[in-house]
Specification:
InterPro entries: DOPA-like_sf, DOPA_dioxygen. One of its GO terms (molecular function) is dioxygenase activity. There is one protein chain. The protein has helices spanning about 25-35, 65-75, 90-95; strands spanning about 10-20, 40-45, 55-60, 80-85, 100. Strands 2-3-1-4-5 form a 5-stranded antiparallel sheet, covered by helices on one side. It has a single domain, classed as Alpha-Beta Plaits (2-Layer Sandwich), CATH 3.30.70.1240. The chain has about 120 residues and is α+β, with helices and mostly antiparallel strands. The protein has 3 helices and 5 strands.
Length: about 120
């Protein structure tokens, strides 16, 4: 199983990345996560949002669910890449130092977080 970000946070986000060809797969994964796990499923964005370099859907969950959610996502993502980060209020650190990947890593557009 992938390594948890180095600090334990109260909240986490997992962003499921997809492209037009994998939209249906991402929708199904997000819907299943909402039914089977203690996560809040955000909108499925068919456009770039925030620092994310791909279309995405956000899952929000508590630290108590971290191991279950990450294990489930890793086992069920079927080739989709997932970006996971803690939520501390420091967006730059959350998307860099407090982050991990399931699948292939992508470069985020961090310009919006520059201090």
């Amino acid at each position: 199983m992938p390594r948890r970000p180095e600090n334990l946070y109260a909240q986490y986000h997992a962003h499921i990345y997809f492209a037009p060809a994998t939209l249906a797969q991402a929708r199904e994964l997000s819907e299943r996560a909402g039914r089977e796990l203690m996560v809040v499923v955000g909108r499925v964005h068919e456009r770039l949002v925030g620092p994310h370099p791909h279309w995405s859907c956000q899952l929000a969950f508590d630290a108590a669910e971290f191991d279950e959610v990450i294990g489930w996502l890793d086992a069920n993502r079927n080739g989709l890449d997932v970006f996971v980060h803690g939520v501390t209020g420091d967006d730059f650190a959350d998307h860099t130092a407090h982050a991990m990947w399931l699948g292939e890593e992508s470069a985020l557009d961090l310009r919006m977080f520059r201090r």
